[in-house]
Amino acid sequence: MRIDLNSDLGESFGPWPMGQDAALMDSISSANVACGFHAGDPGAMRATIALAREKGVAIGAHPGFQDLVGFGRREMKATPAEVEDLVLYQVSALAGMASAQGVRLQHVKAHGALYNMACRDRALADAIAKAVAAFDRSLILFGLPNSELLRAGAAAGLSVAAEVFADRAYDPDGSLTSRTKPGSVIHDTSKVVERAIKMVRDKQVIAVDGSTISLKADTICLHGDTPGAADHAKAVRRGLEAAGISVACWSA
Questions:
Q1: Number of domains in the chain
Q2: What string of H, E and C letters represents the secondary structure of the chain?
Q3: Which of 27, 96, 131, 204 is in Cβ range 3.0-4.6 Å of 88 for a Cys bridge?
Q4: Domain residues for 10?
Q5: How far is CA 186 from the centre of its chain?
Q6: If we measure between CA atoms, which residue out of 60, 159, 64 comes closest to residue 105?
Q7: Which one, of 87, 20, 26, lies nearest residue 60 by Cα?
Q8: Do the domain assignments include residue 130?
Q9: In this structure, are strands 204-206 and 212-214 parallel, antiparallel, or unpaired?
Q10: How far apart, in Å, are the Cα atoms of 220 and each of 28, 44, 109?
């Protein structure tokens, strides 16, 4: 068995540091790099790409709503055309930064509210897929298993990757539990490791009501801004490998 392990990085802004990027790069296989709309700035983008290149970590664009104050986690009203434009703009910006360092993008993963909205709204999902396909059809589109986002990506001719979240709680319908609810983020490292292994080996996760959700897992996300994220990532990688599951990016 094999799995990709990704994290959302490059989310520092100006003098304000965010996350544990350097430590996380030692454990993950793919990095989702913020593109300056929900977080990050040109300097952070450039530095994150350089670090990923040094560590042999694949990179992807992590576009979100233009919402620095809300960290891209607030739902915003946007037409499909507006979403297509903002995704194309951000992917292009990161790809340009990467090209300057001799690096190609591997994937695209929408951020926060944009991701969650597109997973259930086909029109927004189509807009994201259309933007990615217009830029580079070889890019892989990440999304929740059985989501509109993955269906839109496949319809647009893109390769898609079913993404699961070891450090987030799930509602019975397979969506992520809202961050406004207690227990939505899982901080116990042993539980995060246990969930990661179960997701890959058994293709299952236990929802907040105790029910079992069946899912496909191509890549596991560990949020870079969660306290203790680097420890989570290190423990998850060790746990996966001990269970006979290798960790590698899609392009490996």
A1: 1
A2: CEEEEEEEECCCECCECCCCHHHHCCCCCEEEEECCCCCCCHHHHHHHHHHHHHHCCEEEEECCCCCCCCCCCCCCCCCHHHHHHHHHHHHHHHHHHHHCCCCCCCEECCCHHHHHHHHHCHHHHHHHHHHHHHHCCCCEEEECCCCHHHHHHHHCCCEEEEEEECCECECCCCCECCCCCCCCECCCHHHHHHHHHHHHHCCEEECCCCCEEECCCCEEECCCCCCCHHHHHHHHHHHHHHCCCEECCCCC
A3: 131
A4: 2-247
A5: 17
A6: 60
A7: 87
A8: yes
A9: antiparallel
A10: 10, 23, 12
The domain that contains 42 carries what CATH number? Answer: 3.20.20.370
Residue corresponding to tokens 């910006």:
93
Token pair in block for residue 228: 């203790």
Confidence (pLDDT) at 237: 96
- Residue 187 has a CB neighbour count (10 Å cut-off) of 12
- Residue 62 inside a domain? The answer is yes
pTM of the entire structure? 0.94
Residue linked to tokens 């290798």? 246
Instruction: From residue 9, give the alpha-carbon distance in Å to each of 144, 158, 201, 243.
Output: 19, 24, 27, 27
Phi and psi angles of residue 22, each rounded to the nearest 5 degrees, phi first: -60, -45
Distance CA 76, CA 58 (A): 30
At 94, list the tokens.
């990161």
> What does the alpha-carbon distance between residue 181 and residue 34 come to, in Å, rounded to a whole number?
25
> Which residue numbers in the chain have pLDDT < 50?
252
In a domain, 95, yes or no: yes
Record the tokens describing residue 174, joined without a space.
């397979």
Q: Quick one: pLDDT at residue 228?
A: 82
Confirm whether 252 is domain-assigned. Answer: no
CB atoms within 10 A of CB 213: 19
